[in-house]
């Protein structure tokens, strides 16, 4: 080999060894405050969003707004921003019975507290139509009151059934998603999160953030 070529090659090798591998790009992690006092909801949100999000919770007593789900979520989010300094999310969940024209809808919290899952099923005793859909609406604010509130929705259709499975999370025992023989309560958490109304809404929220990177 030409001595000149050998010297150049040696210097090039030395440079590569000294330089080492190129540094990896730092992973972006998004900080979010989820306004909720429900530990099970927080657990699901953390599991669904994964390690790209650092989710903490604040239990803030927000006003009980009335109206359409999207309007309720936006109003709750704007109120939450007054208490949380930084990016914040709030959630509004509806369980809508088709035979009742969409009721209980956003008022499911009060129906559930009075009737329980068994009572929700009994509400439909006089109707052949037991179909329903679960609707989840997440509202996000950057923390700046001048910025618009972003809304992300997820919907899962199913049937109201006699409760089955652990009664540990709301109306999960009486909601059986279409295409499954199990209620939410009977499902493995990974299965439920992949098809649930909450999982679908959070997937859209995550996609919104990842587009910004």
Automatic annotation (TrEMBL):
<dbReference type="GO" id="GO:0036222">
    <property type="term" value="F:XTP diphosphatase activity"/>
</dbReference>
<dbReference type="InterPro" id="IPR002637">
    <property type="entry name" value="RdgB/HAM1"/>
</dbReference>
<dbReference type="GO" id="GO:0009204">
    <property type="term" value="P:deoxyribonucleoside triphosphate catabolic process"/>
</dbReference>
<dbReference type="GO" id="GO:0000166">
    <property type="term" value="F:nucleotide binding"/>
</dbReference>
<keyword id="KW-0460">Magnesium</keyword>
<feature type="binding site">
    <location>
        <position position="92"/>
    </location>
    <ligand>
        <name>Mg(2+)</name>
    </ligand>
</feature>
<dbReference type="GO" id="GO:0035870">
    <property type="term" value="F:dITP diphosphatase activity"/>
</dbReference>
<dbReference type="GO" id="GO:0009117">
    <property type="term" value="P:nucleotide metabolic process"/>
</dbReference>
<feature type="binding site">
    <location>
        <begin position="92"/>
        <end position="93"/>
    </location>
    <ligand>
        <name>ITP</name>
    </ligand>
</feature>
<protein>
    <recommendedName>
        <fullName>Inosine triphosphate pyrophosphatase</fullName>
        <ecNumber>3.6.1.66</ecNumber>
    </recommendedName>
</protein>
<feature type="binding site">
    <location>
        <position position="192"/>
    </location>
    <ligand>
        <name>ITP</name>
    </ligand>
</feature>
<comment type="similarity">
    <text>Belongs to the HAM1 NTPase family.</text>
</comment>
<comment type="subunit">
    <text>Homodimer.</text>
</comment>
<feature type="binding site">
    <location>
        <begin position="197"/>
        <end position="198"/>
    </location>
    <ligand>
        <name>ITP</name>
    </ligand>
</feature>
<keyword id="KW-0464">Manganese</keyword>
<dbReference type="GO" id="GO:0036220">
    <property type="term" value="F:ITP diphosphatase activity"/>
</dbReference>
<dbReference type="Pfam" id="PF01725">
    <property type="entry name" value="Ham1p_like"/>
</dbReference>
<keyword id="KW-0963">Cytoplasm</keyword>
<feature type="binding site">
    <location>
        <begin position="36"/>
        <end position="41"/>
    </location>
    <ligand>
        <name>ITP</name>
    </ligand>
</feature>
<feature type="binding site">
    <location>
        <position position="76"/>
    </location>
    <ligand>
        <name>ITP</name>
    </ligand>
</feature>
<dbReference type="GO" id="GO:0005737">
    <property type="term" value="C:cytoplasm"/>
</dbReference>
<feature type="binding site">
    <location>
        <begin position="169"/>
        <end position="172"/>
    </location>
    <ligand>
        <name>ITP</name>
    </ligand>
</feature>
<keyword id="KW-0546">Nucleotide metabolism</keyword>
<feature type="binding site">
    <location>
        <position position="64"/>
    </location>
    <ligand>
        <name>Mg(2+)</name>
    </ligand>
</feature>
<comment type="function">
    <text>Pyrophosphatase that hydrolyzes the non-canonical purine nucleotides inosine triphosphate (ITP), deoxyinosine triphosphate (dITP) as well as 2'-deoxy-N-6-hydroxylaminopurine triphosphate (dHAPTP) and xanthosine 5'-triphosphate (XTP) to their respective monophosphate derivatives. The enzyme does not distinguish between the deoxy- and ribose forms. Probably excludes non-canonical purines from RNA and DNA precursor pools, thus preventing their incorporation into RNA and DNA and avoiding chromosomal lesions.</text>
</comment>
<dbReference type="GO" id="GO:0046872">
    <property type="term" value="F:metal ion binding"/>
</dbReference>
<dbReference type="InterPro" id="IPR027502">
    <property type="entry name" value="ITPase"/>
</dbReference>
<dbReference type="InterPro" id="IPR029001">
    <property type="entry name" value="ITPase-like_fam"/>
</dbReference>
<keyword id="KW-0378">Hydrolase</keyword>
<keyword id="KW-0479">Metal-binding</keyword>
<comment type="function">
    <text>Pyrophosphatase that hydrolyzes non-canonical purine nucleotides such as inosine triphosphate (ITP), deoxyinosine triphosphate (dITP) or xanthosine 5'-triphosphate (XTP) to their respective monophosphate derivatives. The enzyme does not distinguish between the deoxy- and ribose forms. Probably excludes non-canonical purines from RNA and DNA precursor pools, thus preventing their incorporation into RNA and DNA and avoiding chromosomal lesions.</text>
</comment>
<keyword id="KW-0547">Nucleotide-binding</keyword>
